[in-house]
What we know:
By secondary structure, the protein is an alpha/beta fold. 36% of the residues lie in helices and 13% in strands. It has an eight-stranded parallel β-barrel. A two-stranded parallel sheet has the order 9-10. The radius of gyration is 25 Å and the shape is elongated. It comes from Lacrimispora algidixylanolytica.
Amino acid sequence: xxxxxDATLTMLDEYSLTKELVLEFLEGLxxxxxxxxxxxxxxYHLLKGQLPEGLVYYMELPxxxxxxxxxxxxxxxxxxxxxxxxxxxNIQVNDLWELKGLEGMEGDKKLRxxxxxxxxxxxxxxxxERGMKLLMGVSPILYPEDSYYCASAIAADYLQYHHNGTxxxxxxxxxxxxxxxxxxxxxxxxxxxxxxxxxxxxxxxxDLFEEMTKTEISxxxxxxxxxxFYIESGIxxxxxxxxxxxxxxxxxxxxxxxxxxxxxxxxGGASIRYKLKEFHCEGNYNVEQLLDMVKRRSMKKGGxxxxxxxxxxxxxxxxxxxxxxxx
Length: 327
């Protein structure tokens, strides 16, 4: 069974976290069917060792001699295995050709492979296929880095090749890693992973992450961006309203989002009719003239026409109507 381990909290030692925020974040991961979480010693001490049930906990340590200080942590990531069954050896791979060193190794669930920056950048698909077969043979916890912006794709592909594989990721890809939310939705769409599970808690986890890091996630970030289901283009709007699945890999409700038609210089008549229906004004206005007014307003301000501005335009049309000027 494919598994995901989230290592976000190891990237947040420099932030002012609270016990409440960390506990809420861990509960959010559980709601997403993430199987495990990696803690830093600092986060562990912040929680005072009180780890929520339902997750398998991991920790990176320079030496296994310190592992006894952290009861409740099941596995420790180190540079070597000590034979206790609790240690996971970490190997850094900085180049695809280093994977040849894995040839002949038997499946090793006590191995984490970090790196693989260049696995997807070669023109030959055969090179990539051989690399994946080597990984499947060894079956490590795969923790790809994102120097070539391919980490999420590599992690998702690994799980598609290897249905019993395990990947390690971070929320938003913080720390130059694969993004937890992107890998989750990729395997949901392609492999029907957890087909009856809802990932609407992703929007809450996004808000929580922003609170912990005091940052704002881009509105167009894949999966969790607040505006990824905002549509403006006339043809796009018309198509989405007729059959959303032609344009959207998954419905917005799955990730706690909602679709919104926004008005701007690229809008078409379908957008105007949609907005008129939304405000219960259909049939009362000339769509083409409204569209012209919206486009002019958008180009003048250099951005989208808000709902409030659209209502103002409707009010202006009402005034024109009163003076016998059709709108």
